[in-house]
Design a protein that fits this description.
single chain, 411 residues, alpha/beta, TIM Barrel, eight-stranded parallel barrel, three-stranded mixed sheet, 13 helices
Length: 411
């Protein structure tokens, strides 16, 4: 049995709310938190990320290893969500477990994810299932990965097969998590598999394949059993420019965001994932603005990102929006609370302006494997001792729990 305590072994101080000074969220607003399979399950050795983590020339600080052992510990982790008052849990299927070789399907692994979905329902949590969260089976990666157009067909086949087994119990489905990040980091910046730098041809091909994969996956899931909304999630930003270069914002945003937003028109919902601001200047994307605090991830402390992204996503897609990821990687939990307060205030403004924003998912439930940064970045509202796997509820979790319970945010 896991021991679960607050930081410093005592209950966190819970701030009081003044009903006269509060942002009220609408009835039915969905509060959730999120994880991804490779970042939490452990021992996902059959995908491209495990290969990349162990390559001799990798930029990854450390391998994922056992991660947070969520594959086995998910029941007690779900109990934490219930304790904190969340209404939904977003998690991903590991494609490489379910289809370990092309055309070979693991009923045992589908049963595992079926048990996870059932465990959510048993606890009153809506299971929000992501079908691809950055990891691709080794066999698909070895055949060109996302630069190979056939990967879109293979992914849609996977969605159809998994959806046939799980669809009746899924509450919401996300096809691909942040498809714009996969080609950017994998083909231009060398931080994701396949680890290439400035491979514009690979970037263009992978982008086209990922857009095609989303459309095919959407159709496959809607054609299968169950009646659940399906959408894409996208990495988005607030955008700014050096003086005199404001015209570059649309140039860069159209390539990084709008191409995918346009591909999502007509979907059941759109998932906004925003953390910070992207700035452009004469030479293209530039770093943080002098004087603006910079977080350990290297980007600006910029809590208005979610509000800006919501407004742009709805403007382009016309679809209802969920904030499917928002949070902050920091060792300062008080800073996390400040960020969440400011970010949620912005979300509240979009709702007050009549925009169709239906829920908010905090990233993430627990500190976990943050891709190339290893375990150094801490986004969780629950800490994890990786030696003992003990979970520790942070004060930020208790703060967010009260916001959820009251469905309001004080000003």
């Amino acid at each position: 049995m896991l021991s679960v305590t607050d930081v410093a072994g005592r209950p966190a101080c819970i701030e009081s709310y003044d009903p006269a000074m509060a942002t009220a969220f609408p009835d039915g607003f969905l509060w959730g938190t999120a994880t991804a399979a490779h970042q939490t399950e452990g021992s996902n050795w059959n995908n491209d990320w495990w290969v990349w983590e162990h390559a001799s020339d990798t930029l990854v600080e450390e391998p994922s290893g056992d991660a947070t052992d969520h594959y086995w510990r998910y029941p007690s982790d779900l109990d934490l969500l219930v304790e904190l008052g969340f209404g939904a849990y977003r998690f991903s299927l590991e494609w490489s477990r379910i289809e370990p070789e092309e055309g070979e399907w693991s009923s045992a692994q589908l049963d595992h994810y079926a048990r996870m979905i059932d465990a959510c329902h048993d606890r009153g949590l809506q299971p929000v299932v992501t079908f691809h969260h950055f990891t691709t089976p080794r066999w698909a990666a070895a055949d060109g990965g996302w630069a190979n157009p056939v990967t879109a067909e293979r992914f849609a086949r996977f969605c159809a097969h998994a959806g046939a087994r799980l669809g009746e119990r899924i509450a919401m489905a996300c096809t691909i998590n942040e498809p714009n990040i996969v080609p950017l980091m994998g083909y231009l910046m060398g931080m994701f598999p396949p680890g290439r730098n400035d491979d514009l041809d690979g970037y263009v091909k992978a982008t086209a394949t990922l857009v095609d994969a989303h459309r095919r996956a959407y159709g496959a899931l809607k054609a299968g059993p169950g009646d659940f909304p399906v959408g894409m999630t996208l990495s988005m930003s607030d955008w700014g420019a050096d003086p005199g270069h404001e015209d570059k914002v649309q140039e860069y945003r159209s390539r990084h965001e709008d191409l995918y937003l346009e591909a999502a028109r007509g979907d059941d919902f759109f998932g906004v994932q925003a953390y910070s601001r992207t700035r452009v200047g004469e030479s293209g994307v530039v770093g943080p603005e002098p004087g603006v605090p910079v977080l350990p991830m290297g980007y600006e402390y910029w809590p208005s990102a979610a509000e800006a992204a919501i407004r742009h996503a709805i403007e382009v897609t016309g679809a209802p929006v969920y904030v499917t990821e928002n949070g902050i990687g920091t060792d300062d939990d008080e800073q996390r609370v400040r960020y969440l307060r400011e970010s949620l205030t912005g979300v509240g403004r979009t709702i007050a302006d009549g925009l169709d924003v239906r829920g908010y998912f905090h990233w993430s439930l627990m500190d976990n494997f943050e891709w190339a940064f290893g375990y150094r970045m801490r986004f969780g509202i629950v800490g994890v001792d990786r030696t003992t796997q003990q979970r520790t509820v942070k004060p930020s979790a208790r703060w967010l729990s009260q916001v959820i319970a009251s469905n309001t945010l004080d000003d």
